[in-house]
Amino acid sequence: MTGELPEFLERVAPTARMFPASWRDAAIRVAFDRQAGGVQCRGCAGLFRRPAELRRLHGDHIVPFSRGGLTTWANLQLLCARCNLRKHAKHQP
Ligand SMILES: [Zn+2]
To answer: Cβ of 62: how many Cβ atoms within 10 Å?
Structure first.
């Protein structure tokens, strides 16, 4: 995500394994495109509009955690469930 971590969010250790749900929810609010009426997946560029779809977006490490990527706002992107699964499959040893 671009910009600073929003003020109201809890701080987490950059070495934490997962993004907190609060960060994911905030990322959805920040990424929400009012004109398009939804949030775009950073993987497939699909647009997700319905609340049920938005709830299924994943907070993903741009640089994978397994490759030294940190749990920071800058390293967070939103992926749809399908892209997230695909990415994880690709990085399996
Ligand atoms: Zn996707």
So the answer is: 13
Q: Give me ligand 1 centre to Cα 57, in Å.
A: 9
Is residue 31 one of the residues assigned to a domain?
yes
What is the DSSP code (8-state) at residue 71?
S
**Span from the CA of 82 to the centroid of ligand 1 (angstroms):** 6
Q: How far apart are CA 48 and CA 42, in angstroms?
A: 11
For residue 75, the enclosing domain spans 21-90
CA of 50 to the centre of ligand 1 (A): 15
- The total number of structural domains in the chain stands at 1
Q: Global pTM? A: 0.90
In a domain, 57, yes or no: yes
> How many angstroms is it from 84 CA to the middle of ligand 1?
7
pLDDT in tens, 10-53: 999 999 999 999 999 999 999 999 999 999 999 999 999 999 99
Q: Would residue 39 count as lying in a domain?
A: yes
